[in-house]
Design brief:
The protein is about 35% helix and about 20% strand. The two termini are about 20 Å apart. An 8-stranded mixed beta sheet has the order 7-8-10-9-11-12-13-14, sandwiched between helices. The protein folds into 2 domains: about 1-90, no CATH class; about 95-375, Alpha/Beta hydrolase fold, catalytic domain (Rossmann fold, 3-Layer(aba) Sandwich). The chain is α/β, with parallel strands linked by helices. The protein is globular, with a radius of gyration of 21 Å.
Amino acid sequence: MVRSLRSRVFHVRVGRSVFAVGAVEKNQLLNRGRQMPTINGLELCERSDGVPGVRGRATDDRQRDPHGWRRSQIQLTSRELSCHLRIGARPMTKVHFNKVNVDGFKIFYREAGPRDTPVLMLLHGFPTSSHMFRDLIPLLADRYRVIAPDLPGFGQSDMPSHKEFKYSFDALADRIGRFTEVIGLKRFAIYVFDYGAPIGFRVAMRHPERITAIISQNGNAYEEGLSAGWDPIRAYWKEPSAANREALRAFLQPAATIWQYTEGVTDKTAVSPDGYSLDNHYLARPGMDDVQLDLFGDYKRNVALYPNFQDYFRRHKPPLLAVWGKNDPFFLPPGAEAFKRDIPNAEVKFLDTGHFALETHSAEIGAAILSFLAKNVK
């Protein structure tokens, strides 16, 4: 993982270490690849206190910070940083794709990372699948065992018709809770996004002793986090008529999916079409419209449970990181800030992007997660 801020050193993740990289030329940083751990005369090393860093071989002390690390003089974009990671400055991560029978329901999941490391479970939202974590998993999986299931009815998991299975957030949480038991997870951190938040928070409330930490990426638990974008769905909650249900089909159109991915993104060319194209493929399956319309209607139960979620936060105070696309058209920044009301030590970070923040800021989110988990999960 690499981070770049004008006034700070770069942080480069190589294997299981995070290194602070100083004044290096952009092309060398991006192209040296497997020739690490030496970049432009900087030797990857550890300080005497055990903190990973970079020792400059040059003798110009004016370019060093108090620890002997050379300060950054350039700034790279998220895409360039992700490119650097893929070139080979870190080991390639092998991702496994599995299905498991959970009480007669087949759940698909991605898994990567050593089995003897702390577990992080990633829960996606609407209308996507675990595919949304394709860039994040490799950034985390040499330090953590990463598990990313497709929710029931989504992606590659079973999708019975809404007449055969009652699609509610309680039911999805039941299946995901059982999924963790079937694959043998005892304690784990959760990353929750969008629909993954009310599902993950239910799992946490039911078994608080299993939760080591929570990362909320645009995963809401406060009414002040709901934007006016929810008004058509609120109308259906208030009056679940056929006409109000039919109006919500607009959210299931291909153009609406693309809008969710690109709204609030400064540079829309940074959003790969892979994600929203796959989501639209899954949305087009026969019967999927009724599955999603049922969940739109049931979301009101999540809002009714917000006080319960907040009580869980206050009582158990799990370590929590809220990393939020601040231009999200559905979940507003006050929803992220509100976590600190119930968990005063919660970390809150905002990114200049939209709802699907991983599409444009996977490097930054990965860095924030690594830093957060290193402090809170052993």
